[in-house]
Design brief:
Protein name: Bifunctional diaminohydroxyphosphoribosylaminopyrimidine deaminase/5-amino-6-(5-phosphoribosylamino)uracil reductase RibD
Keywords: Hydrolase, Metal-binding, Multifunctional enzyme, NADP, Oxidoreductase, Riboflavin biosynthesis, Zinc
Pathway: Cofactor biosynthesis; riboflavin biosynthesis; 5-amino-6-(D-ribitylamino)uracil from GTP: step 2/4; Cofactor biosynthesis; riboflavin biosynthesis; 5-amino-6-(D-ribitylamino)uracil from GTP: step 3/4
InterPro entries: APOBEC/CMP_deaminase_Zn-bd, CMP_dCMP_dom, Cytidine_deaminase-like, DHFR-like_dom_sf, Eubact_RibD, RibDG_C, Riboflavin_Biosynth_HTPR
Radius of gyration: 24 Å
Number of strands: 18
GO molecular function: 5-amino-6-(5-phosphoribosylamino)uracil reductase activity; diaminohydroxyphosphoribosylaminopyrimidine deaminase activity; zinc ion binding
Order of helices and strands: HEEHEHEHEHHEEHEHEHEHEEEHEHEEEE
Strand content: 15-25%
Structural class: alpha/beta
């Protein structure tokens, strides 16, 4: 290859790399915009979109709340007439069905968008075929740009749609010698105060927080997102016999509370909880225990895409033993208890891959995935 040919090839490669870098930049901006929907859009996915013309962003949008306008519509509305002949970068395949909002594909075609870059396809059958409809109408549509980042952002939604159950995160805090409470069962903070912000972030990102009734009886927790109670997840209590006191904070402080009981629960107890505003869900039982798989299917049908299990040793161990988890978050404090309640009691080996380790203050956080 001559010098001119080599220089030409290098120039083409440089130009191609520059164009790819620009595509990535715009898609990453769309992903950042999508984050603004955290805690507000579920059971819908978080979605962000940017409209680009002549290398400049002319419209930005995101899905702001469940039932609200979709990201594509908001971005196109901001772009106005500038959307004609422009490119659209969106973190998820545009929908092609009528729901609470009209199809995004219709809005895209009406705006005159030239090309659509979607980070990943939508696994929801009701929303699928958006790309197919756009291509059929002559709009160039491509998948794959920043796909890994986009799928990570919506992992709860994607896993839930594909599996038919919520994404399950089990979170526990233990002493360095493996205990979650003192021997007398008294409640006392084990992890450091810096872990509080981490736990609150976990709560914000999940649709529901789940505990067993014994945690409610012993600790009387609030189970809220403290920074903005309006964004608090649904509180779920596994309570086969409806023993949750009507004045328990998970019931009395407002917000959505779901008591999962069995047919063996006394009707009078369940009735008193319902009168206080709690929703009662009667689940199937096996040997007097709530059938977790059936319960999770019911939660999925209610639109709950993700559950943070913050229950005690018994509840967490049940989910682990039945392999009903996707992520395990263990906060290991620097303190020792020496005698107390062990974090897990499992009768079988459970395999999980360590995905991340980090320090928060003096405590260590281990994140494992199935």
């Amino acid at each position: 290859m001559g010098r001119k040919s080599l220089a030409s090839a290098r120039g083409k490669a440089t130009g191609k790399n520059a164009r790819h870098a620009a595509h990535v930049k715009f898609m990453l901006e769309a992903i950042r915009l999508a984050e603004r929907g955290i805690g507000k859009v579920s059971p819908n996915p978080m979605v962000g979109a940017v409209v680009v013309k002549g290398g400049k962003v002319v419209g930005r949008g995101w899905h702001g709340f469940f039932g609200g306008k979709h990201a594509e519509f908001n971005a196109l509305e901001k772009a106005g007439k500038k959307a004609q002949g422009a490119d659209l970068y969106v973190t998820l395949e545009p929908c092609n069905h009528h729901g609470k909002q009209p199809p995004c594909t219709k809005e895209i075609l009406h705006a005159g968008i030239r090309r659509v870059f979607a980070a990943c396809p939508d696994p929801n059958k009701a929303s699928k075929n958006g790309a197919k409809a756009l291509r059929k109408a002559g709009v160039e549509t491509k998948f794959g740009l920043c796909r890994k980042e986009a799928e990570k952002q919506n992992e709860f939604y994607i896993k839930s749609v594909l599996s038919g159950r919520p994404f399950i995160t089990i979170k526990t805090a233990m002493s360095s010698d493996g205990f979650i409470t003192y021997g007398d069962g008294r409640a006392k903070r084990i992890s450091g105060r810096k872990d509080f912000s981490y736990t609150q972030e976990l709560r914000l990102r999940h649709d529901a927080i789940l505990v067993g009734v014994n945690t409610v009886l012993k600790d009387n927790p609030k189970l809220t997102y403290r920074r903005d109670k309006s964004l608090s997840p649904t509180r779920i209590v596994l309570d086969p016999r409806a023993r949750t006191p009507p004045n328990a904070r998970v019931v009395s402080q407002g917000g959505e509370t779901l008591i999962i009981c069995t047919r063996d629960a006394p009707r009078a107890r369940a009735g008193r909880l319902a009168m206080k505003g709690a929703e009662i869900l009667v689940a199937r039982s096996r040997a007097g225990r709530i059938d977790l798989r059936a319960m999770l299917a019911s939660l999925h049908s209610l639109g709950i895409r993700s559950v943070l299990v913050e229950g005690g040793a018994f509840t967490a161990s049940r989910f682990l033993e039945e392999r009903l988890f996707d992520r395990l978050v263990i906060i290991i404090a620097s303190m020792k208890i020496r005698k107390g309640l062990e974090a897990f009691k499992i009768g079988r080996r459970v395999r999980a891959r360590i995905a991340e380790t980090k320090k928060i203050g003096n405590d260590e956080v281990i994140v494992a995935e199935k």
